[in-house]
Each structure stands twice: as C-alpha cells, then as structure tokens.
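Could someone model manganese (II) ion with this protein?
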Amino acid sequence: MPLDRRTLMRGSAALAAAALAPRAAFAQAAAGPFTLAPLPYAANALEPHIDAKTMEIHHDRHHQAYVNNLNAAVKDHGQVAAMPLQDILAKLGEVPESVRTAIRNNGGGHANHTMFWQVMGPGGAGSPGSAPAGALAEAITRDLGGLDKLKTDFNGAGTRVFGSGWVFVTVTRDGKLAIESKPNQDTPLMEGKRVLFGNDVWEHAYYLTYQNRRPDYLAAWWNVVSWPKVGERYAAATAGTLTI
Ligand code: MN
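Reply:
Sure, complex below.
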C-alpha cells in the first residue's frame, strides 16, 4: 500500500512531537531560577540506614516540591529571583511580604535538602573517611567536646525538636562549631550563618523504616555521614566560599 500524503504528514508530526517532547519536558523542569540536582549517589546507597524508597520520595517529591514552590514564589519578583539563595534567606525581611512565607518555607527547604544530600554518602562506619580528620577533627574536639559528645548532643537536640525541623552544626568563618536546631524548614542561613552539616528530623525522612522511633534514626544516621564531604565544607567555610 503506497504511503499517502496524509499518512506521511501524520508520521512526520509524530516524529516531530517525539523529538520535541524531551526538550519541552526539560524546559518545564528548568522553568525557574532554582533547579533540583540529581542525588549524588544511588537511592539505595545508604541502605540499610536509609531505605531507597525513602530517598526516592524525599528527593524526587519532597525536595522537588520545595524547588517548584520556590520558583513559583519568585516568578513575579525578578530582583529576588536573581539573588543567590543564601542571600535571599539572610534577607527575608526585605523580600516582598506577599511571598515571604513561601520563600522562607520553600527556600529554606531547598537549601536544607541541597546540603543534606551532600553531607551523606555510601561507606559507613569502618570505611576510609568514616571519621573526621585534620582541622575538622580538631574543631570538633575543641568546640563540641569530641565526636562522641557531638553525637550525643546533636541526637538530643534532634530528639527535642517538637514536630518537624532540623538539627545542624553551624560553622563560623574562623572555623568555630556549634549545634543548633530549627523548626520547619528554617535554617541558620536565615541569620547569615553557615551550616557545616545537618540532619532532617521531619517524619518523611525516616518514617518508612523507623516509624515513630526518631532516636533510632538519629543514631543510625551517623553511619551515612560522609566525613570527607563535611571536611570539604569545613575548608570552604574557613575560606569564605561555603554557600548553602
Ligand atoms: Mn526533608
């Protein structure tokens, strides 16, 4: 059967649509100034301490939603949209009031989760780099009483967060460390501080494996902390180049 003109046109249209589809999808995902980076490791890389399903839902849905909602909030505010995220969060009081809460929640969520994926990694206790080294180790001893005390105090602060929130270790430009917790998606970046690392104590971070046992999640989480990555962030903080 000869290929008639109409079939040919339909075929061409379908081919053109197929060729355009990935670009259209990409354009949509990259619509705002803020984008979601892929996880820097496989979703199952942190098992058994954090299960793959939790990682997928947490990154692909929760974090993506913060990015989408942040982009929507800055859509009609070009001056805000053009600023680095850490500067927006440090100057929330100057952001238009109509979008301030949305930017606080979703900008905080974007910054917190971007940091969170970075400071974890496969490896675990006993593997190379499974303990702090160098200047970071010295600062932990000097400011936080050593790694064991840091874990005890950090887990205690994380357990005491009522409802949803985060527990952080902040770092100053001269390398001084402190433990701080925040509600919701607030972050020390909102006070112009820098975050060395932090743990998410929202239920969505642990519920599938740990249900209501937040202290068990907090204890297990140390097995997936990437001390080499935290060491890089410490070096960046003291060099003045750490952002979020
Ligand atoms: Mn989260």
